[in-house]
Amino acid sequence: xxxxxxxxxxxxxxxxxxxxxxxxxxxxxxxxxxxxxxxxxxxxxxxxxxxxxxxxxxxxxxxxxxxxxxxxxxxxxxxxxxxxxxxxxxxxxxxxxxxxxxxxxxxxxxxxxxxxxxxxxxxxxxxxxxxxxxxxxxxxxxxxxxxxxxxxxxxxxxxxxxxxxxxxxxxxxxxxxxxxxxxxxxxxxxxxxxxx
Length: 196
Fold this sequence. Notes:
Elements: H1 6-26, H2 32-61, H3 65-79, H4 90-110, H5 115-132, H6 145-168, H7 172-188, H8 191-195
Helix pairs in contact: 1-2, 2-3, 2-4, 3-4, 3-6, 3-7, 4-7, 5-6, 5-7, 6-7
């Protein structure tokens, strides 16, 4: 993706800068703090879109487009309320995302997780989600205890639903993708991952 390489940062800054200028003109009462929040949000959206385009292109050429699409939908549901860590740079994020998501799509397509392991991994995922979600970041702290509790409950419920689906769905790929999505997100909210 363009923003991951030298000249891409210039393009990203240009796109986001122009967007912020338009927002300023239409909302002159916005404080500098509010504009910084919007800038941060736009940066995340820009990186997410450009990164996703490249990852899906790679998956397409590897014959894994449909599998990646299914995995990403399930993962998005699992991550929705549990949040999680971000890589320090867009390039490292791209590399890690490519390896994890394309690799997981390949594994789920190639191998079938035995029911016993699926049960162990699924229960572990639900327990881990209940224990460590939601996981905030320095740039996006969760300071409201009630909001944090609500996120924990929702993320645990979704993790439980995904786990049950992995046991009930007859399609082996989708069932295994449910478990892999849970395990990926457990890694993203793990205190060990944050320390590393």
